[in-house]
Amino acid sequence: MHRTVRIPLKMIDVDKGAVKVVKWVNSFFQTFTLWSCEGYGTNGKGDTYLPYVCFVCLHDSKHQDPIGMIREQVNGSVGVSLYSETQHVFGKPTTHRLSFDSRKAMRDFSRGLPKLDARYVRGLVE
Q: Are 53 and 97 in contact (CB under 8 A)?
């Protein structure tokens, strides 16, 4: 195995209301947010735009199960659902979506998330 170093990939713009959820999702090893939106109600034509965070999880290990840990946090949360998409890589669904019934549901979920270890978020520990 080659020696590796951790580097930040890039900075992205994230809706303020989705920042805490996006940081939490991205804190899991090889888990990356693709799209997110804090939601903004209806557009006047009857279309409703609800909050979501869509992400990929490329890691599967007995040491850390990101989807299981995310699912555990979702269980018992009101107005939050976790869906796995049909795209498969290596025989496993890799695209996932956290969907929220409202902006309030996203805020409440954010408030219940565990505090992130700053060293972990910076990539210094796994």
A: yes
The closest of 116, 122, 119 to 20, measured between CA atoms, is 116
Give domain limits for the chain.
16-117
Cα–Cα distance between 47 and 117 in angstroms, integer?
39
- Could you tell me if 99 and 50 are in contact, meaning their C-beta atoms sit under 8 angstroms apart? yes
Residue 27 structure tokens: 């804190």
Q: What is the pLDDT of residue 124?
A: 40
Q: pTM higher than 0.90, yes or no?
A: no
- What was the pLDDT predicted at 122? 46
The candidate with the shortest Cα–Cα distance to 50, out of 85, 90, 98, 96, is 98
Query: Please, are residues 23 and 3 in contact by the beta-carbon 8 Å criterion?
Result: no
What are the backbone dihedrals phi and psi of residue 55, each rounded to the nearest 5 degrees, phi first? -145, 165
For the chain, which ranges sit under pLDDT 50?
Answer: 119, 122-126
